[in-house]
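Workshop exercise sheet. Pairs work together: one partner reads the sequence aloud, the other fills in the structure field after running the prediction. Swap roles for the next sheet.
Pair: D.N. / O.F.
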Amino acid sequence: MNEKIAIVTGSSSGIGKSCCIDLLKTGCTIIGIDVNQKSIDNQNYIHLIMNITDEETVKEEIKKIYEKFGKIDYLVNAAGTFSNGKPFYEIDLEKWNKVLSINLTGTFIISKHVSQCMIKQNYGKIVNIACIRSTIFKQNMSDYASSKAAVVALTSTMALDLAPYNIQVNAVAPGFTYTGMTARAFDQADIKKASEALIPCGKIAQADDISPVVLFLLSGGSNYITGTTIFADGGYSIQK
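Structure field:
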């Protein structure tokens, strides 16, 4: 993976940041995209503050990246936001749209413009971050679950569209993972204990438990895998 060019969204924290750190260790040059300031200091890391739902800006910046480096090898769509935490019948349309816009439409927009570059070079790998809530549901998460279920569907349809161009598209669906979005809940001892009791592996994942799965899907070892969602959830989803 040395000398590869990777774009990672949601690069300032959580799984996105962990993916950046792991990719930098392999010798990749990373273009990190986030709405927040950078949190990685490395000579091979370039940070862009950008809203992934702004298609014109995305289109312009992806074009600049491609012209500068002459290629884009990898894309990791890790940017996302969490549920409003209300039953669906109480969610304001504006707040519903925000979750769908960031989690789903933002992934679509970035992937659309990066894949156009990958088609030109007849090579590329894209990994989307989904969630166990794409198939295992919980109350008061209709907005988030809907967005992540759609990301899984988008992953498979993208894979079919891009297969003729030697581009693989896969997703990783993390289970209970400690990130900036979930810290508020998992920092409460009772919630942490109850959550860990539901996981066969007995622990809540850290971001660096998930990022190696992303790296595998970016590596040559995944060349014959496309359209697949890998559940990285400590066994949570296989229980009856």
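Discussion prompt: Residues 5-234 form a domain with the Rossmann fold fold (CATH 3.40.50.720). What would you look at next?
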